[in-house]
Amino acid sequence: xxxxxxxxxxxxxxxxxxxxxxxxxxxxxxxxxxxxxxxxxxxxxxxxxxxxxxxxxxxxxxxxxxxxxxxxxxxxxxxxxxxxxxxxxxxxxxxxxxxxxxxxxxxxxxxxxxxxxxxxxxxxxxxxxxxxxxxxxxxxxxxxxxxxxxxxxxxxxxxxxxxxxxxxxxxxxxxxxxxxxxxxxxxxxxxxxxxx
Length: 196
Known about the structure:
This protein is an alpha/beta fold. It is built from 7 helices and 11 strands.
């Protein structure tokens, strides 16, 4: 089987356009993008699915469906579309063998857990989760500004209790031709996927 890469849409959310544009003045970016009355820009949560020989590998999980009322007001997210997008690729939750987390901010890690009416469950119960150890520690014990970006209680505590977690300390080839690289930057423990 050849290695293939697919896009899977996990949903949409609205984020502060000014924060996204950084130092670019409003007078310039306001003529280039569409935004709402709160100057929020709609973001697509596009994830990668890698079919790598016998593995089905998902990169990040999107927002999920366990959004607090506070976050719902701020980000106005769509419904969690990842299960539907994976089904369109012929993939069920139990088919996913690996989940690579680039980092653990709520908009990337929220889909690790799916909330059902009666209980919460791991969205991909048979997967191994590849996470940088430094990122895991920050997510468990965020300080200062990091507190708003991580949600360990709702998104990661169930993974810690029931999941198959592989904490990495730097770069690692997890399968032939598939490497994870610790790059830092966006978060101290951010990693990227390098596919040969």
